[in-house]
Specification:
Strand 22 and strand 23 form a beta hairpin. The protein is elongated. It has eleven helices and 23 strands. By secondary structure, the chain is of the alpha+beta class. The protein folds into two domains: about 260 residues, Zn peptidases (Aminopeptidase, 3-Layer(aba) Sandwich), CATH 3.40.630.10; about 210 residues, Alpha-Beta Plaits, CATH 3.30.70. Strands 9, 11, 12, 13, 14, 16, 17, 18 and 19 form a nine-stranded antiparallel beta sheet that branches. A six-stranded mixed beta sheet has the order 1-2-6-3-7-21, sandwiched between helices. The protein has a four-stranded antiparallel beta sheet with strand order 4-5-23-22. The structure holds zinc ion.
């Protein structure tokens, strides 16, 4: 398969198990590769690998270019696949048009970046500026390698991240994010009457960044509306609440245990039925499978009292979630959003978790403030975790201009230039490497992070030629 040198290294990488947290052998391979090719290398304390190659003749004094990809892959396999992905190599397959792995993820995300870069470092006949190859660890588990990066050895003025999955798109910005967890004290007493579970489900959910503007309904927010209905009509008490748990996923299900006077059961059934009709009418186009049901429950020991129940409903109804602002520079693109991704009422504490994303740091700060005020108002508090900056769109970028020009030269048309409303390593790298001009691109990869992952061979070939042309232009 062409390009031979790229697929040679892709096969080598695929022969070494390299799931997140299991990349020591691949790191050692890269360091050994540098030794074999007479290249300088450096591994920082966290294990991120850097390899250095001088510019080719005529390019010795050009600004160095950082070429970056991540070492780790997501290990997923089909239920019937017997492979131990911790220890055994995946089996590559191809029909000439696509490459995939038998029963497992391919690791094209992000093995193709490493294959390109190693092929380039090994080559003797390619024109390029000085190259600083940066292979980060543990990208797929919270961008840890990038967070821990010791960037002191990197002098590059440009950074090309090869971790995008659609040919023809140049990514020039990404969202920053912060996880917010809130705790609100809830007054409670002993349970009474009888108990039922109210459950909302069948919602589509989705990624809290990429899908936040697709009108998906958040099950935790819907549960807030239903509980408000029940409180107003039937004077219920809430004993527990549970919705999802992953902040980067829009909740698909949510449930609460409620206590009430058994004489009111018919009224409660009516209210749930009424809510379901409203839900179906309101969101038929987006959420055709939505349901709300009442199920049996054992009587809990304690439940929120009347004031505590009002606080739970108030918090669910007032918690912001969804798109906060659209981007004025890029039409149709979300700038700032948040997702209420985790809700738990256990005994006397209501816990809520949010993922705030923003392509500007200003937007993120405003939402943190809004949540702080809401929680303080309710006598609660918040903690921030995993705060990382946005990779903000820069109006001037020489690298972007060169990459657009190279695209026009090779493809005869303009690439799509866009930002994404999700996290990339470039967000963290933009803070570690201030002033470095960055663009992300990559060949067509389908169904990444699933055993159906596959890579287009033609696209991998075109993107290789494109990368070489970009490097030629960066004289
Ligand atoms: Zn990736």
């Amino acid at each position: 398969m062409e390009p031979k040198e790229v697929f040679h290294y892709f096969a080598k990488i695929s022969g070494i198990p390299h799931g997140s947290g299991n990349t020591r052998e691949l790191e050692a391979y890269c360091i050994g590769f540098a030794r074999e090719h007479g290249l300088e290398s450096f591994q920082d304390a966290y294990g991120n690998v850097m390899l250095f190659k001088k510019g080719s003749p005529g390019y010795e004094d050009s600004f160095p270019v950082i070429l970056q990809g991540h070492l780790d892959m997501v290990c997923e396999k089909e239920p019937a696949c017997p492979l131990d992905m911790e220890k055994e190599a995946i089996s590559l397959r191809t029909d000439g048009a696509y490459v995939w792995a038998d029963g497992t993820t391919l690791g094209g995300d992000d093995g193709i970046a490493l294959a390109y870069i190693l092929a380039l470092l090994a080559a003797k006949d390619i024109k390029h500026p000085p190259i600083e190859a940066l292979f980060t660890r543990d990208e797929e588990v919270g961008l840890r390698g990038a967070r821990m990066l010791d960037a002191s050895r990197l002098k590059g003025k440009y950074l090309i991240n090869i971790d995008s999955e659609e040919e023809g798109i140049l990514t020039v910005g990404c969202a920053g994010a912060v996880r917010v967890s809130a705790q609100i004290p809830i007054s409670a007493g002993s349970a009474y009457g009888c108990a039922k579970i109210v459950r909302i489900g069948g919602l589509r959910g989705g990624h809290s960044g990429i899908d936040i503007d697709k009108n998906r309904h958040n099950a935790a927010k819907m549960l807030g509306i239903l509980l408000d209905d029940l409180c107003r009509a039937q004077d219920i008490r809430v004993a527990s609440v549970c919705a999802e748990g992953r902040l980067n996923v829009i909740p698909q299900t949510a449930e609460a245990v409620i206590c009430f006077d058994p004489a009111k059961q018919a009224g409660i059934e009516d209210a749930v039925q009424h809510f379901l009709e409203m839900l179906k009418k309101e969101c038929a186009a987006v959420e055709p499978e939505a349901f709300a049901v009442l199920e049996e429950a054992a009587l809990p020991e304690i439940c929120a009292d009347a004031a505590g129940t009002r606080d739970v409903v108030f918090a669910l109804m007032q918690a912001p979630s969804g798109v906060y602002a659209m981007d004025p520079d890029i039409p149709g693109m979300v700038r700032t959003s948040l997702n209420l991704g985790d809700v738990r009422l256990e005994e006397r504490v209501l816990k809520m978790g949010f993922m705030i994303r923003s392509n500007t740091d200003f937007g993120k700060r405003i939402l943190v403030r809004q949540l702080t005020l809401l929680m303080e108002h309710m006598g609660g508090e918040i903690q921030l975790e995993d705060d990382y900056p946005a990779w903000e769109y820069s109006r001037r970028s020489l690298l972007r201009d060169k990459m657009v020009q190279a695209y026009q030269d090779i493809y005869g048309e303009d690439p799509k230039v866009c930002s994404i409303h999700a996290g990339l390593e470039c967000g963290i790298l933009s803070e570690k490497l201030p002033g470095v001009d960055m663009v992300s691109f990559g060949p067509d990869l389908e169904n990444v992070h699933s055993p159906a992952e596959r890579m287009s061979v033609d696209s991998a070939k075109r993107c290789w030629e494109y990368l070489l042309h970009v490097l030629r232009l960066l004289k």
